[in-house]
Specification:
Elements: E1 8-19, E2 22-33, E3 37-41, H1 48-55, E4 63-68, E5 71-75, H2 78-91, H3 96-145, H4 151-166, E6 174-177, H5 191-201, H6 207-220, H7 237-249, E7 255-259, H8 267-284, E8 287-292, H9 295-301, E9 304-309, E10 312-318, H10 319-324, H11 329-336, H12 343-348, H13 356-359, E11 368-373, E12 376-380, H14 382-394
Parallel strand pairs: 3-8, 3-9, 6-7, 7-8
Antiparallel strand pairs: 1-2, 1-4, 4-5, 9-10, 10-12, 11-12
Helix pairs in contact: 2-3, 3-4, 5-6, 5-7, 6-7, 7-8
Length: 396
């Protein structure tokens, strides 16, 4: 069922992630609502994984902003630098009045860039300070009112919680499940050490608390306590991916980025892992960014789907809408490539080839992401936009 919650948990605005001259992700925007599964699809190399890694701050983004729970957690500076450079170029031939305007624009861009750098660098520390204030507000009245005999124990709990609070990081509320379960697990660490590592880094020192959480999450993902003392090489691919899921879930995140979590697994195991993620989503109230190139899996699991091509978002709609009315030629090409276990259908299936040079004419006007129908966005110019509108009206 589609997610009915309208609260936006994650918002990505004009995200650009460049590696020198390579534009891995180029000006994409989308939001993910709380409790939703947002599917991100496209061929290999289109920028899906880079988008996920940029959100979780494994990369410093080149340009744009990423907001989580209404607070900016990542920001790039390239757009501000380009605006300043453009204004300086214009100043060379501008009138005195225009020069004054451009100087004000440059000052404004410098201030925005300063704020972006500050938020990007200090968002985790600001979050830790907030948590520490909440802990202090909770315990100060309790300590003031407690009898002398209870104060030592209460003060110990207060100091323990304060220590943990000061090590909190905003970004740990987003966890990632990586594509390759073998490469993402340290072969020298036991399953227990792998899952407990995040808790230890966060400041948890009570071994009983760590034990309880590790063993509980192992059972939650379909493993048993005895697996805790083993090493990754002793498990199958599906079991390794369950360990990866456990490592993410033990941190009690609000959001999980699942980066093609089933692409390296057998088909029967894929269904088990997808069902596990679906169960966890409902049990723990998780929001999931599900990155994949298997559209049949994405359709089953996702509420909304974004389609990427060469670093750009070309179409965005609900799962049902996208499969019922694909508008962008690339989306149509992707959907035509989905095989079905039906020999008669396969003989008749027409595969649509996407050639961007012949499909679009962007010589006069570049495309932008436009809303064709409520919640259905397509990358197009004005001429294509009018054609898509007519196409939607003609559909039953």
């Amino acid at each position: 069922m589609p997610n009915q919650n309208e609260e936006v948990l994650l918002r990505v605005e004009h995200l650009c992630q460049y590696f020198k001259s390579t534009k891995a992700v180029d000006d994409i925007s989308f939001d993910i609502k709380k409790g939703e599964v947002f599917g991100l699809v496209g061929e290999s190399g289109c920028g899906k994984t880079t988008t996920g890694r940029s959100i979780i701050k494994l990369y410093d983004i080149t340009s744009g902003n990423i907001y989580f729970k209404g607070k900016r957690i990542a920001a790039g500076t390239l757009s501000y630098k380009e605006a300043i450079k453009k204004a300086r170029e214009e100043m060379k031939s501008a009138s005195p009045d225009r020069q004054a305007e451009l100087k004000g624009l440059i000052d404004e861009q410098r201030q925005l860039m300063k704020e972006a750098k500050h938020d990007h660098k200090h968002c985790d520390q600001m979050y830790a300070d907030e948590i520490a204030k909440e802990v202090a507000a909770k315990y100060e009245p309790l300590l003031a009112a407690a009898p002398d005999a209870e104060k030592p124990e209460l003060k110990k709990r207060y100091l323990d919680e304060m220590r943990v609070a000061k090590k909190q990081r905003f970004i740990t509320q987003i966890q990632m499940i990586f594509q390759d379960p073998i490469a993402s697990l340290d072969p020298r660490k036991t399953v227990y050490e792998t899952i407990a590592e995040g808790l230890v880094i966060r400041g948890e020192k009570d071994k009983k608390v760590i034990d309880d959480k590790v063993y509980s999450v192992l059972e939650t993902v379909g493993l048993v306590r005895e697996h805790a003392s083993r090493y990754p090489h002793e498990f199958s691919g599906g079991q390794r991916q369950r360990i990866g899921v456990a490592r993410a879930v033990v941190m009690n995140p609000e959001m999980i980025i699942a980066d093609e979590p089933v692409s390296a697994l057998d088909v029967s195991i894929q269904a088990q892992v997808i069902n596990l993620l679906n169960d966890l989503r409902h049990q723990l109230g998780l929001t999931i960014l599900f990155i994949a190139h298997d559209l049949s899996v994405v359709k089953y699991f996702s509420d909304r789907i974004g389609v990427m091509y060469y670093g750009k978002m070309v179409e965005l709609a609900t799962s049902d809408e996208l499969f019922a009315h694909p508008l962008h030629p690339y989306t149509q090409s992707l959907l035509s490539a989905i095989p079905l276990p039906d020999p008669l259908y396969e003989r008749q299936r027409v595969r649509i080839k996407y050639d961007p040079l012949s499909a679009h004419d962007y010589s006069e006007e570049k495309p932008t992401l436009r809303e064709i129908a409520p919640g259905h966005f397509v990358s197009c110019n004005t001429r294509e936009y009018e054609a898509y509108l007519a196409q939607m009206k003609a559909k039953p």
